[in-house]
Each structure stands twice: as structure tokens, then as C-alpha cells.
Amino acid sequence: xxxxxxxxxxxxxxxxxxxxxxxxxxxxxxxxxxxxxxxxxxxxxxxxxxxxxxxxxxxxxxxxxxxxxxxxxxxxxxxxxxxxxxxxxxxxxxxxxxxxxxxxxxxxxxxxxxxxxxxxxxxxxxxxxxxxxxxxxxxxxxxxxxxxxxxxxxxxxxxxxxxxxxxxxxxxxxxxxxxxxxxxxxxxxxxxxxxxxxxxxxxxxxxxxxxxxxxxxxxxxxxxxxxxxxxxxxxxxxxxxxxxxxxxxxxxxx
Length: 254
Hints:
By secondary structure, this protein is an alpha/beta fold. 43% of the residues lie in helices and 16% in strands. It contains seven helices and ten strands. The strands form four sheets. The protein has a four-stranded antiparallel sheet with strand order 8-7-9-10, with no helix packed on it.
């Protein structure tokens, strides 16, 4: 968009409409397969009604790189100023209205989410770097491991209090889901309990989970907090490490 707000919203609208149309084609295909009996588990009948109600199902579009888009357009990260947060709100309200409008036109219940898997974040960032070059693309992770923000919205390395304030302010605008991962950082259960009350009562943050990487030893079958290259108990090197990637814990290499 090169700093042109009208062009930015126009491009967003085009991409969003194309995504909704893709979902409509998917819905048409699923309905056709069900009517042909190819999806017996979904189309099985109970009390005269299909087990899976296609008419009521949600079709979700996930947003990747919101923070980087705002940084590119305004020159500020979300957590740096209120201005980029207001601009993000404007973008999300625009897409929310478009989801309703296009969904009604296609006969779908369309919403949008910020719960994205890391694979899409890595792939799209790499494609943009390849197409536009490092001088124009804003990413997280640097040249070695470029990616777009997906969970949370804010940049890497932002202090926890700032991150949670921004997340709480923007989370309600995602009608298809949003998730905030909060690092435990060795804090005791009492401190986490106090923070949970603060998140619910003061910030009204609704969807979050405490993030604690884990290491499992296949030799003594014990699990430890943090990432370990060998078992702290028996010394075995036969260990597996797990860390949260988006909404799930995944096996990682250390």
C-alpha cells in the first residue's frame, strides 16, 4: 500500500473477499460430498437431522502479521503508541463488517481470528521477503528465521504488562477467537493466581494460558519445567522438549 490508507483497505478488502469465496467453494464441496454419502460420519442422521449442521458451521479466516502491517504503514509497533492501536481497531472493525456482509452474500457464518499456526506465519513471511526484499518487508525473527506475529499480537521481547494491556484492548474485536500465551517464568502458583485475578477483573482478558516449556525423560519417565538437554534426575540424553507454538504444545529440537 506504500502508506496509502485507501489502498491498504482496498487490498485488505480484496484479499478478504477472495478468502470468503474460497470458503464458499469449500462449503459447496462439503455439501455435495455429504449428499453423495462420501462423508458418512458428518452426514449421519439422528432424530431426522444430520449430525453435522452445515448451515450453522462457522467459517473462520485467520489474520497473520497484523503488528507488522501496522508498523509498515505507520512506522510504529502496536505496543509503542496508542495511535497504532487505534489504527488496528479501525482495520479490525472494517474486516468485521466485511465478514458479515460477505458472509450474508455467500450464505456463510464468517468470522475472523488471531489464532494462527506457526507454519502459515513462517511461510508467508518467507514468501514476502522473496518477492519484495528485505528493504520493504517488516518481519519478526530477523534474516535467519523470518516470521509474522500470530500469538500474541505484539512484538517479541515486549514487557509482559504492556503486552497484556494491548492484547486485552484488541482481543474482543476478534469474533472468531484470540489467544494470549503468558510465560510462567518460574513464578510460584500464588503469583500466577494473583495475576489471573488481575487479568480477569482489571484487564478483562478472556482467553489466555500460562506457557511453560517442558522436558520429558524417556528413561526415567519424569517431566521437568524448562528446556533441558539432558535429564536432571538420571542424566539421560534421551529427552524430548515441548513448547507452546500458537495454541498447542509441540515437540521442538534443542
